[in-house]
Structure formats: structure tokens, C-alpha cells
Design brief:
Blueprint lengths: L1 E9 L2 H5 L4 H24 L3 E4 L15 E7 L4 H23 L5 H8 L4 E8 L3 H8 L9 H18 L35 H7 L2 H4 L10 H14 L15 H5 L1 H8 L4 H12 L28 H12 L1 H22 L7 E9 L2 H4 L13 H19 L6 E7 L2 E6 L1 H19 L11 E9 L4 H17 L6 E7 L5 E7 L3 H12 L7 H6 L8 H15 L5 H16 L7 H16 L10
Parallel strand pairs: 8-9
Antiparallel strand pairs: 1-3, 1-4, 2-3, 5-7, 5-8, 6-7, 9-10
Helix pairs in contact: 2-3, 2-9, 3-9, 5-6, 12-14, 13-14, 16-17, 19-22, 19-23, 21-22, 22-23
Length: about 600
């Protein structure tokens, strides 16, 4: 007998969002994807017919399996076996990390943290008819659908109810070290850190030297976060699932240095010799990036070339290299940076990077039993084809090569990537166009498949957890802040924690990009957004604001571009005013000008050498 089975697990968002570094973020995402992949393949090997996801073999290192698996299974009930397989794979991961670290520490406390961290949930039902569906849900209205639709709808509802009940597992963590109780984990803050002395000198006796390099001074990790930090090395790399380069993952500083690295790749002569010497000196340290974002450039971490970062950088390098070796390398770093500036008039100054977070709009509606978007009935064949399109969309997004990027995950309609602020909005717009092209043939007439996206531009030294929280907030505003769907919310989070953002639909993105280019070329004064902030109080009457806007443009914009800027800004104001829900269109416009000015004036964007 055929049964429709859905499998999922939790926590997902908390496992990802508590990361402190891009590598932790990638590893957490990859672990989740790998757990889903193993469940999907287990079902296939058990004779099941996989509906979602429909994954093609993709490039190594792409976290592309979502945390939900849907399959048609036959005969015996596979629910318990699926959940046991999930637990077994997770156990293999955390046991491999503990064994690889050879850590002489509180193993029982480690197991207390990791063993029951994930909760798998699965449910299956035989294909049902409308009568069974209506009686179970106590629905009186008649719904035109087939058995697959009724079964999928009911299994989803029942599994959602099942997920709300979670067995209580008391986490009595009373482990101590030298008579002291641990504090909270510095990465997640959800559990106590492992009961060992995290002082640097004490850690040298507990961890291998090459592992200690990947624990920053002051860090104190719990069992779960220790797995996130070392799973690539001691599980995925050892099983040849990921190459060694994923163990040396690019930092946010490396992403901020994309434009600098692109310019550096075009250089030759003596500079390259100096860079090669630096690479040799740093080959066994965390300051050499083996997973390159910009191909053909130096593998030396971009942060090393940014003078403003030297003070804190050299302090952290001393912990790894020791004072004597640091002094020798420091001299080479300064010399190479000086030669690059002298010869090519190029200096790495930009400390800002961008995070893009996006997903498809109304995906639940696409697969709903009473969909208002889908033009054909929900069936097994449609669901399978829809899954294939989601996979193809994620694959095509990754293969957009015009913009250097660091993909964290691309699974189904979900995407997270780190990019340079100058490229990120153009890339996001292309993603939306791709989504439309992949799903338009499924939509009813008048319906337009879109994505919503949050984009955060922030300092490379900003707390990553705060950045992730902020970009999720921007994505939520993009989804809920406009009439209809298909919007992007772009924000700038400065080093001091001030967030300024604007919201628009994809049709208005070109207006923003045009203004960025005008700010970049110096045709618009940097003071224009600040002057307009002073007149926002006149927003009750847009005609007054437009008069004041034209007057400000006459003073702050080069004469040949005044009319173009005014028409661009006026068009943005009028268009967004038609669909913004709660945001004031004038305030939104001024914020957009601020963000455009911020990106256009970033150093290494307007620099001739770049």
C-alpha cells in the first residue's frame, strides 16, 4: 500500500543563527543539509519514491538539501526507521569530532549537550479521499481535489501538530572544573561551556596546536558549538565529502576585500613575488584562505592588507605565531602593502560586506489544496516537477558567475550568500528574474512568481549573530511591508549599530542602482541625503517635499545631472507610494538615498585603480 511520508527536524534556525564566523555558519548549514540528504537517500534505498527534494548531483560544498523530505513509501511504516537513521548520522558526526580532537575533557557533559540536540519528526498516511479528509478536519465545505492533495494537506497538518509536542529532556549540567561552574557558551549562549579551563595556556595542553588556532582568545564553547567548529575537519573532510579548503573558510573581511582582490589579480612583476613569499610564511596558519572567492588572486587573507585592521590583526596573529615570528612577517606585510600602494595606487580600505537572504513568495500557496496561484491541480507529478524547478533555480543561482560571492546555502527557494555591497542588489535582482522564469509556466494568468529578499550591508567586525538577526528582520519587512509580494529591503548597519533601510519592489531596483552610480561618479553630493532628512517633517504634503527636493538637488547635484536625478527620485517616490503598507514613502526615499550614497562612496568602489 502506498503511503505519503513527510520527514523534518528541529531546531534549524537556532542552529544556524548562533554562529560567530562564516565558517561556523557554513558548517551549520552543511550539517543540516547533509542530515536531510542522508534521510532522502535512505528512503530511496528503501524503495521509496522521492517527491521533495529533487536534487541533482551538485558541486561539492553546496548546502542544498532543505530540512524537509517528502516521499511515497510502500508497505511497512518507515517512520521509526527514518528517525533512527537521522539520529545515527548525527551521532557519527559528533562522535567523529570528539575522537578527532582527542580532547581530554568532560565527555559525559559533551554527550549531554549533543546527543538529544536535534528532534526528528516523521508521519505517513495511506492516500485518503475527500470524505476522510473532511471528517478528520471537521470541514463542511466541498473542495475539488484528488487523493494526493487531500493526503498531502492532512499529513502536513498532523505533522505540524506533532511538532508542537516535544518530549521534555532535563538538561542538568552540573559539571565543574577546578571547583568552578562553567559560564554560558560564548557562541550560542544556550548551554554552559564545556567544563575545562579555557585560558590560552591551559588549552595548549588540551588541544592540538593546529586545532587551537581555530579557537579565538576568550572563546568558550559548548558541545554543540564545538561540533560546528570542527565537523568539517574531523567528519566531512576525513570522509572526502568536503575538501580541505572548507576548513580554511573565508572571513567577512575577505568578502569585504573582494574588489581589492580583483584588482590584485591583475597585477604582476615584483608584487607577485612578495605575495608568494607572504603565502609561504602563512601557509600553515588561519591567515591563508584556501577557499578563494576571487580566483587567481593571492590567497593571503584580505584583512592583512587593510591598515585600519592591523592593530587587532597583529594581536591575534601573535597568539598563533608568537612574537618573534610575527615581527618578521609584520615587516613583510607592511612592505608588500607599501609596494602595492606605491606602484599601483591601490590600497585596501573597505571594511563593509553584504549579506543576502531570500526565499520564494507564497511557496505554501503554490502547494496548497486551495491554491490561488497554481493553474493545475496539486498532484504527485506536479509536486515532483515543482521540486525539480526549485532545485534548478538554486543550481542556476549558484552558477551566476558575474559577481564573486560566498554561498552559505542554496536549497530550494532559500538562499544566503555573502557578497560585496556594490554587487549584491544587482545579483538579487537576477535571482528574482530566474525565479520568475522557472515558475511562470505553473502560474495562473495574472500571477507573477517572485522572491522576497533582505540585504544587509555591515562592517566586517560586526557581531555576526547581530548581522544575521538584522538581515532576517529586513527579509521579513520585504515580505510584509508591501501590497502583494516581490520586494527587497536593503539596509546599512554601521559599526556603531545604527540601521537605516529602504523597501521597494524589484521594478524600482534599477532606480536605486542608477543613483548608486551617480554617487560613485561624484555627480551627487554626499550631503544630499542628510539635507533631505531635515525636511522630512514636511512629509504630510508631498508637493511641498518635491519643491524642497528640487531646491536641494540644484545645490547638491552637478548641473548636467539635476533633471535626471530629480526624475529618478520623483519616480521612485511615486511608485513606492502606491504599494508601501506602513512605511512613509518620503522617509523611505530619503533612506534609499542614504543607502545609495553609502554604497556609491565606499572606498574601492570609486577608486580608479579598482
Amino acid at each position: 500500500m502506498e503511503r505519503l511520508l513527510i520527514f523534518t527536524f528541529s531546531p534549524v534556525q537556532g542552529f544556524i543563527s548562533t554562529s560567530r564566523r562564516p565558517r561556523d555558519l557554513f558548517t551549520a548549514s552543511f550539517i543540516l543539509s547533509y542530515l536531510s540528504e542522508r534521510v532522502a537517500k535512505f528512503l530511496l534505498n528503501s524503495g521509496a519514491k522521492l517527491i521533495y527534494p529533487q536534487i541533482e548531483e551538485s558541486k561539492e560544498g553546496l548546502a542544498n538539501y532543505p530540512n524537509k523530505v517528502l516521499a511515497i513509501v510502500y508497505g511497512e511504516n518507515l517512520e521509526e526507521r527514518v528517525e533512527e537513521e537521522f539520529k545515527k548520522v548525527w551521532e557519527d558526526i559528533y562522535e567523529s569530532v570528539w575522537k578527532g580532537l582527542s580532547l581530554k575533557g568532560p565527555r559525559e557533559q559533551y554527550l549531554l549537550h549533543v546527543k538529544d540536540y536535534f528532534n526528528p519528526f516523521s508521519l505517513s498516511l495511506p492516500l485518503i479521499d475527500e470524505r476522510y479528509w473532511r471528517e478528520t478536519l471537521k470541514v463542511e465545505e466541498e473542495v475539488k481535489a484528488n487523493k494526493y492533495s487531500f493526503t498531502y494537506d492532512l499529513v502536513g497538518r498532523l505533522l505540524g501538530a506533532k511538532k508542537t509536542w516535544r518530549p521534555y529532556k532535563a538538561l542538568v549540567d552540573d559539571y565543574t572544573y577546578d571547583g568552578y561552574f562553567p559560564d554560558g557558551c560564548t557562541m550560542c549562549g544556550e548551554r554552559l561551556h564545556l567544563a575545562i579551563d579555557w585560558d590560552r595556556e591551559s588549552l595548549k595542553k588540551l588541544f592540538k596546536e593546529e586545532d587551537l588556532w581555530h579557537i579565538r582568545g576568550g572563546e568558550k564553547l559548548c558541545g554543540v558549538c564545538l561540533v560546528k567548529r570542527f565537523a568539517v575537519k574531523y567528519y566531512f573532510h576525513q570522509r572526502k565529502i568536503l575538501k580541505r579548503e572548507y576548513w580554511s573558510y573565508p572571513s567577512t573581511e575577505e568578502v569585504a576585500g573582494i574588489k581589492f582582490k580583483e584588482a590584485l589579480a591583475k597585477m604582476g612583476g615584483e608584487i607577485k613575488e612578495g605575495l608568494k613569499a607572504l603565502e609561504e610564511d602563512l601557509k600553515d596558519t588561519p591567515f591563508l584562505v584556501r577557499r578563494e572567492i576571487v580566483k587567481g588572486s593571492t590567497k593571503v587573507e584580505a584583512e592583512i592588507f587593510r591598515r585600519e585592521a592591523w592593530e587587532s590583526l597583529f594581536k591575534s596573529m601573535e597568539e598563533v605565531l608568537g612574537r618573534e615570528k610575527l615581527e618578521k612577517i609584520k615587516e613583510k606585510i607592511i612592505q608588500v602593502a607599501y609596494e602595492i600602494k606605491k606602484t599601483y595606487k591601490l590600497e585596501h580600505k573597505n571594511p563593509y560586506f553584504a549579506i543576502l537572504l531570500s526565499d520564494g513568495d507564497n511557496v505554501g500557496n503554490w502547494l496548497s489544496i486551495k491554491s490561488t496561484i497554481r493553474k493545475e491541480p496539486l498532484s504527485e507529478s506536479f509536486h515532483k516537477e515543482f521540486s525539480k524547478r526549485l532545485c534548478k533555480y538554486a543550481k542556476d543561482v549558484v552558477e551566476i558567475n558575474r559577481y564573486p560571492k560566498l554561498i552559505i546555502y542554496a536549497g530550494g527557494d532559500d538562499l544566503m550568500t555573502f557578497m560585496h555591497p556594490y554587487d549584491v542588489v544587482s545579483f538579487a535582482k537576477e535571482c528574482n528574474n530566474l525565479f520568475f522564469s522557472h515558475f511562470q509556466s505553473f502560474a495562473k494568468e495574472g500571477q507573477r512568481p517572485t522572491i522576497s529578499a533582505g540585504i544587509l550591508i555591515t562592517h566586517a567586525r560586526m557581531n555576526l549573530q547581530k548581522s544575521l538577526e538584522s538581515v532576517r528582520g529586513l527579509e521579513k519587512r520585504a515580505k510584509n511591508g508591501v501590497e502583494g509580494k516581490g520586494a527587497v529591503c536593503v539596509g546599512v548597519l554601521t559599526k556603531v549599530g545604527s540601521l537605516t533601510y529602504f523597501l521597494c519592489k524589484w521594478e524600482e531596483v534599477e532606480l536605486y542602482l542608477k543613483l548608486v552610480e551617480l554617487f560613485k561618479r561624484g555627480y551627487i553630493s554626499s550631503n544630499l541625503p542628510y539635507e533631505l532628512r531635515d525636511v522630512v517633517k514636511e512629509r504630510e504634503r508631498s508637493e511641498i517635499f518635491l519643491t524642497l527636493l528640487r531646491r536641494a538637488i540644484r545645490r547638491k547635484v552637478q548641473e548636467n545631472y539635476q533633471e535626471e536625478v530629480f526624475k529618478t527620485v520623483e519616480s521612485f517616490l511615486k511608485r513606492t507610494g502606491c504599494y508601501l503598507k506602513d512605511a512613509c514613502p518620503i522617509t523611505n526615499l530619503v533612506n534609499m538615498l542614504y543607502v545609495a550614497r553609502f554604497v556609491g562612496k565606499l572606498e574601492e568602489v570609486g577608486d580608479e585603480a579598482v
